[in-house]
Amino acid sequence: MAAPPYDVLSSAEARQAAIGKPLSFLHVSKAEIDLPPEVDHHAPEVYARSAENFLRMIDAAVLCRDPQPCYYAYRLRMGEHVQTGLVAVASIAAYDSNRIRKHEFTRPDKEDDRVRQIEALNAQTGPVLLAHPDSSEAERLLALASDALPVADLTAADGIRHTLWVIDEARHVARISEVFDAMRNLYIADGHHRSAAASRVAAARRGNRKASDHAEYFLSVIFPASQMLIMDYNRVVRDLNGLTQEAFLAAVGQRYRVSTPPASPRPQRSGVCHMYLGGRWYQLTIRSDLVPESDPVRRLDVSVLAEQLLGPLLGITDLRRDTRIDFVGGMRGLAELERRVDSGEMAVAFAMFPTAMGELMAVADAGQVMPPKSTWFEPKLADGLVSHLLD
Questions:
Q1: Distance of CA 276 to CAs 31, 105, 256, 265, 354, Å?
Q2: pTM of the model
Q3: Residue 141: which domain range?
Q4: Looking at the 3D structure of the chain, how many domains does it have?
Q5: Both 185 and 96 in a single domain?
Q6: What are 95-148's pLDDT values in tens digits?
């Protein structure tokens, strides 16, 4: 029943993935797959079907409510990469006061969608991915929990292994609460729309005397920052803004040192990106005087590329709306960049060095936001393993 996050698959991909899987959580998170393709994905009947499917799973004991408050340890394994975090509900008050820190703008339409989903189900079903500053005690406690037999252990179609252990012994629950309550800040890695929607639902319910305080929390999985993996989030551009390849290269050379990359076309450090143009790779090293070191947002590699190349040379100033640019997550590999340029669909591609967790946290601590498509977290959490009922 475990499924990829609702925002990873298109509706067409979700329909295909759910074939022969009546218990797939995609029937809850992407309920349009159970309706005719012409139905709008945000139509009332989609949310109604989602709630119907969710309640059916509860009635059939596919989903079972914990008899008492507990935590879970959640381990993700992708090849050699392993990260172990805490499944918990995080405080809306801490989110509203910026103790749980953000680094992205949200879009009202996406928030509205999550609000409707939460209200229809009276539950949160997509956990927010959070990071905590490293804590040896937190890691020790979760390691102890993962010595027991897991309550869920599965390998998804993409090869990612998901393992859950329940933590319900009172003294362990109390100690974990103590350790995490003492943390100064948590950081949203992925799930800004889900957390913003949860905050809106909580605010709307506060005036209702019958409302439960469960709505004052949102479902989350909290990992140590040092264990989290951010992959490259690359850029492809449709044309050279009227420039020939030779003129474009010459203009790039005014801002970057252009050279032949080493054996791998993947950048090896911050300040360097690789460009695929005309069937070959180039290494671009930014001039140090063009990087504003004191600004946590403008010194990001993705910001430098936007300010020094995409805007002035290619005329792309709105990364959210300009249809001439697209973004390719690192899981697809650099061969995908080559394919899109070689096919003639795109004119040029830029392979980026991944944004670091420390950079993300510095932006959040400064109360600023990162450019669109700055981070691509892997591995992804599964939908359906844990949900949070609001009553």
A1: 40, 30, 15, 9, 17
A2: 0.91
A3: 71-229+378-389
A4: 3
A5: yes
A6: 999 999 999 999 899 999 999 999 999 999 999 999 999 999 999 999 999 999
